[in-house]
Structures are given as structure tokens and as C-alpha cells.
């Protein structure tokens, strides 16, 4: 994925596609970081549950709230990622359409001389 450009993007879009890829990568890294934290929270919740100690079970309430907040954050990151990707794809598509209209050899209407 790194260093690749989207198909259909000309040389002028290379810089833009690199920005898009960097944004995607940043979002995926952010989501993965939260998911890694969730794995640690789940492990701690399981250990507390298995211990059966009242203090540990009480601590699980806060840990589960934190886990739920993290799940919301991951969902938000993916929603933002999706919106950014769609916006980028639409902009790329519009750029290709406008470039196609000006290509040499493309039929254009000429005003009638008379």
C-alpha cells in the first residue's frame, strides 16, 4: 500500500494520493493503538472476574466503561476514515473528468464560422 497511487490518477494527482495514503495510515495506526489497549483491558477484566475478589469485580465496572468508550472511539475513527476516503475518491473522480475533457484528440464543439 505504501508508495502506491490510486489507479486512474495522473501525475498531478500523485501528491494528493500520497496525502490520502498518509491519512489512511495515520487513521489505521490510531485505531490499532486503541484496539491494542482494548486487548489489555479485556485481559485485565477477565483476570479480575476469575479472581472473584469484590475489589477486583468493582474495578471491572470502570474498566468496562473505558472499554466501551474505546469502542466508540474506534468506530469514530473508522467513520472519519470512510468519509475521508469517499471525499478523496470523489475529488479524484472529478479531477479525472475535467482532465478528460481537455485531452488532445477529444472531440470538441467548435463555433461555426460564418
UniProtKB/TrEMBL annotation:
Its main location: nucleus. Residues 104-114 have a biased composition (Basic residues). Residues 88-103 have a biased composition (Low complexity). Residues 17-96 form the Protein EARLY FLOWERING domain. One of its GO terms (cellular component) is nucleus. Keywords: Biological rhythms, Nucleus. GO terms for biological process: entrainment of circadian clock; positive regulation of circadian rhythm; rhythmic process. Residues 88-114 are annotated as: Disordered. The keyword Nucleus applies. It holds the Pfam family Elf4. It is found in: Nucleus. It comes from the Eukaryota. Belongs to the EARLY FLOWERING 4 family. This is Protein EARLY FLOWERING 4 domain-containing protein. The lineage of its organism: Eukaryota, Viridiplantae, Streptophyta, Embryophyta, Tracheophyta.
